[in-house]
Amino acid sequence: MSIDVARIEAAVAEMLSAVGEDPARAGLTATPRRVAEAYSEFFAGNELNALDHLSDSIEFTAKADQTGELVLVRDIEFRSMCEHHLLPFLGVAHVAYVPDERIIGLGNIARVVETISARAQLQERLTEEITEAINDGLSPRGVLVVIDAVHGCVSTRGPRQTASSTVTLASRGVLSDPLERAEVMALIGSRGGDG
Ligand SMILES: Nc1nc2c(ncn2[C@@H]2O[C@H](COP(=O)(O)OP(=O)(O)OP(=O)(O)O)[C@@H](O)[C@H]2O)c(=O)[nH]1
Ligand SMILES: [Zn+2]
C-alpha cells in the first residue's frame, strides 16, 4: 500500500488538537503537510525491496591462493524510526562481507541500509535485516553488520540519556567466527587520516 499523505495530514491535525494546540493558527497551518512529507521519507522503505539494490552484482573470482578477502563499508549514516515511540534513531552502520562469487557496487550497500532503515524498526531487527539482505543478495562467505545509534526515545524522553549510544551486531558464515569478527571490529575501530 502506498503512503496516504492525506490521512497522515488529518491525523497530525488531530494530534495537534489533542495536545491543546490550535491547528489553524498561523504557525501550524502547514505543519500537517510538512509532517506528512517527512513521514513519507521515514517510511519510504515500506514500498521498496532491499534486494533490488543487489541485483546488479559483479562476478568475482578470487585466485586459488587468496582467502579471506574482505569488503568493509564503514560509517554509513542512517536514520530510522523507533517502532515503539515513532521517534527517530540515528547513527552509523558498518557493513562487512567476505565475497564468494559476487561483489556489488559500494553505493548499493548504503542503499540497502537506507531502504531497510526507512521503516518502523527496532535497532536489532534493522541490523538483522541488513545482514540477511547482504547474505541473500550476494551469497557471500560471511557477513557482519555493526550499528551504533542514538535513540530519540532514550535521549529526549523517558531515561533522557543524551550521551548513551547502542551498538548491535549481526553476522553470518565465516564472520560469525570470533577471530574473523575481531579483525573486522579492529578495522571498524581504526581510522585513517584525522578521522
Ligand atoms: N531493544 C530495543 N529497545 C528499544 C529500541 N528502541 C526503543 N527501545 C526501548 O523499548 C522500550 C519500550 O518500553 P515500554 O516499557 O513499552 O515503553 P516506555 O515506558 O516508554 O519505556 P522507557 O523508554 O524505558 O520509559 C524502552 O525501554 C525503549 O528504550 C530498539 O531499537 N531496540
Ligand atoms: Zn523508542
Automatic annotation (TrEMBL):
Pathway: Cofactor biosynthesis; 7,8-dihydroneopterin triphosphate biosynthesis; 7,8-dihydroneopterin triphosphate from GTP: step 1/1. Residues 8-188 form the GTP cyclohydrolase I domain. Gene3D superfamilies: 1.10.286.10, 3.30.1130.10. Keywords: GTP-binding, Hydrolase, Metal-binding, Nucleotide-binding, One-carbon metabolism, Zinc. PROSITE patterns: GTP_CYCLOHYDROL_1_1, GTP_CYCLOHYDROL_1_2. It catalyses: GTP + H2O = 7,8-dihydroneopterin 3'-triphosphate + formate + H(+). GO terms for cellular component: cytoplasm. It is an enzyme of class 3 (hydrolase). Homopolymer. This is GTP cyclohydrolase 1. The gene is folE.
